[in-house]
Design a protein that fits this description.
It is a single chain. This protein has about 625 residues and is an alpha+beta fold. The protein folds into 2 domains: about 200 residues, Penicillin-binding protein 2a (Domain 2); about 325 residues, DD-peptidase/beta-lactamase superfamily (Beta-lactamase), CATH 3.40.710. It contains 22 helices and 24 strands. Strands 2, 3, 6, 7, 11, 19 and 20 form a 7-stranded mixed sheet that branches. Strands 13-12-24-23-22 form a 5-stranded antiparallel sheet, sandwiched between helices. The longest helix has 28 residues. The chain starts with 14 loop residues before the first helix and ends in a 5-residue tail after the last helix.
Length: about 625
């Protein structure tokens, strides 16, 4: 019996699968089409801009730094336009030929140009190829301050010098030269170390930054926002020639308005220099600080020797090198950083402390025999025999060491230290300048670390007259004087009064800031003021230095050095007019020889005579 073969049905794709496949393809095409529409039509401009940004590089141009003024609008620091020659390393085709041509046009040796190209911004390159690899877009500044004739000659051949650019850049200028150099400070090219520390704040390897003084302290405000020329680069990173994009404008930095009175600043500078020259020794150094005793505003601050900040701004390497290696240390700001014993000017503190603590009364008669037994050591006054029977005011005017030895002894180390610190010693004042020294007030622990022996009981006697291991700066001592004048308020000294935009809007103001009220009585301060008002009277240590028509108060100080074998350091603290003081002064001359009355006090007198327009 024959069997029928099975019938095979043809395979058919299920309809649901076909529909599903078509739907997926349609969705994919729709998504792709939507994305293309988004990229090409909706976000096209953004993507084109992003692509262009990957090809655009900014060749930076420095912003003009903000100006610095005194309280009356006198310009202390500014930026001036200057022609500079810059090199864009990646555009240079023949470096030796181009530098030789530049040297010929500028009238200089080619060696310094190569040196500046290979050694700049704290970096050292072995060859030009390394410069191209490390800084392809530069710019590397080869010369600044070009005269008009050199600019004209260079302009004629620029097309033959690819990568050489003639630019106008702001150069820092200090129209007053050396005056107030330790206040304003100076600028210089950022180093690699500085760049690494500051790059997170927007600094670039091409920046010029503040290195000292106000330029350093307020660099964030003064620096402005750099601009530059935008260029297009190819895939290899080379600049595409003949493609010019719009430049980015630089924004000038903010303006500093200071508390300085420039007329007084000039008077102080001249009096200090004249006073040191009169002594006849070229190696002398010193400082003067003038302060408003009612606010802490610094009216003038001078340190000698000084320097010209224009040398640093203009890269005058020989002069800068001389300043750096000069044994007289012209860059050292003695007004805020030279801490030494203060001599008898410290008796302002000892006297007010003794009267406040009640260890002596203003009218108490004491037999000043010219010395005092300080725990087994008999400390002697330089004036043999002392004053005899005396009271506080004449003893302060005459600066009797014998009298103040006993006040310090009666106070003791702990109480004397308490008032020294309350008046601001052994601590920075907080002035808005870098490099301040806090000075020193010795303790037993400090003596052990420094000398390996504990403090002697007699130390307090010498500390009480500003000798021994205590140290203070001229700024600290003028601040002590201001507190005595104003009734006991210790202010933070302030240089800058306001920061303003170039348009004149106030960014930040600095009103008077009280650190503390010194815990001394009004009667104690009044007695100290009365004693210092008699400094030019017969018996006073500055007798003979009175100014007709201008009563002033003061306190001399003379400090032994090298255990009495070196030249004395001299001090004078003063204020004027006595009745209603407008300024307080501290004058300091390091190892001048002589005495406070013969060296430092005449400098202060010259300042007061000139400032208040009195006859010498």
């Amino acid at each position: 019996m024959n069997q029928r073969a099975p019938r095979i049905k043809p395979w058919r794709t299920p309809t649901w699968r076909l529909v599903g496949f078509c739907a997926v393809v349609a969705l994919a095409l729709a998504a792709l089409l939507g994305r293309l529409v988004q990229v090409q039509l909706l976000d096209g401009e953004r993507y084109r801009a992003a692509a262009l940004a990957n090809q655009v590089r900014l060749i930076p141009v420095a912003a003009p730094r903000g100006m610095i003024f005194d309280r009356h609008g006198t310009v202390i620091a500014r930026s001036l336009p200057s022609f500079v020659v810059a090199l864009i390393p990646s555009e240079v085709t023949d470096a030796p030929r181009e530098l030789a041509t530049l040297a010929s046009i500028l009238g200089v040796d080619v060696g310094p140009l190569w040196n500046r190209l290979l050694h700049h911004r704290g970096m050292t390159y072995a060859s030009f190829d390394e410069v191209v690899a490390g800084e392809p877009y530069g710019p590397v500044i080869l010369a600044t301050g070009l005269p008009v004739a050199a600019v004209a000659r260079l302009s004629e051949v620029l097309t033959d010098l690819p990568g050489v650019d003639l630019e106008v850049e702001p150069i820092r200028d200090y129209p007053r030269g050396r005056a107030a150099s330790h206040v304003v400070g100076y600028v210089g090219a950022i180093t690699q170390e500085e760049y690494e520390r500051l790059k997170h704040r927007g600094y670039s390897p091409n920046d010029v930054i503040g290195k000292d003084g106000l330029e350093y302290a307020y660099d964030t405000y003064l620096r402005g926002t750099p601009g530059g020329q935008r260029v297009v680069v190819d895939a290899a990173g080379s600049v595409v020639p003949n493609v010019k994009l719009a430049s980015k404008a630089a924004l000038p930095g903010d303006t500093l308005v200071t508390n300085l009175d420039w007329r007084l600043q000039q008077i102080v500078e001249n009096a200090l220099a004249d006073g040191l020259r009169r002594i006849g020794r070229h190696t002398l150094s010193g400082a003067v600080v003038a302060e408003d005793p009612w606010t802490g505003a610094i009216l003038a601050l001078a340190s000698y020797p000084n320097y010209d900040p224009n040398d640093f701004a203009s890269n005058r390497s020989k002069r800068v090198t001389n300043d750096l290696i000069d044994a007289a240390q012209p860059l050292f700001d003695r007004a805020i950083a030279a801490a030494t014993p203060t001599g008898s000017t410290f008796k302002m503190v000892t006297g007010s402390a003794a009267l406040t603590e009640g260890v002596v009364r203003v009218d108490q008669v004491i037999d000043d025999t010219g010395g005092w037994d300080c725990g087994g050591y008999y400390a002697r006054d330089i004036a043999a025999g002392g004053l005899g029977e005396t009271t506080f005011v004449p003893a302060l005017a005459a600066s009797s060491d014998g009298y103040f030895y006993r006040l310090a002894w009666w106070l003791g180390n702990a109480r004397l230290r308490k008032y020294a610190l309350a008046f601001g010693l052994d601590a920075k004042t907080g002035v808005d300048l870098p490099g301040e020294n806090e000075g020193n007030w010795p303790t037993n622990a400090w003596e052990m670390r420094a000398f390996g022996v504990p403090m002697e009981p007699s130390d307090v006697c010498f500390l009480g007259i500003g000798q021994g291991a205590m140290q203070a700066t001229p700024l600290q001592m003028v601040n002590v004087a201001s507190a005595v004048i104003n009734g006991g308020t210790l202010y933070r000294p302030q240089i800058v009064s306001a920061i303003r935009t170039p348009a004149g809007q106030t960014v930040q103001a600095f009103p008077p800031h009280a650190i503390r009220h010194v815990p001394v009585t009004d009667g104690a301060l009044a007695a100290v003021r009365e004693g210092m008002a008699k400094v030019t009277d017969p018996g006073g240590t500055a007798y003979g230095l009175a100014i007709a028509g201008l009563p002033f108060s003061g306190k001399t100080g003379t400090v032994e050095t090298a255990g009495g074998n070196g030249p004395n350091t001299t001090w004078f603290v003063a204020w004027a007019p006595t009745a209603h003081p407008r300024l307080a002064l501290a004058v300091f001359v390091d190892r001048s020889g002589g005495y406070g009355a013969t060296v430092a006090a005449p400098i202060a007198r010259q300042i007061l005579v000139s400032y208040f327009n009195k006859k010498p």
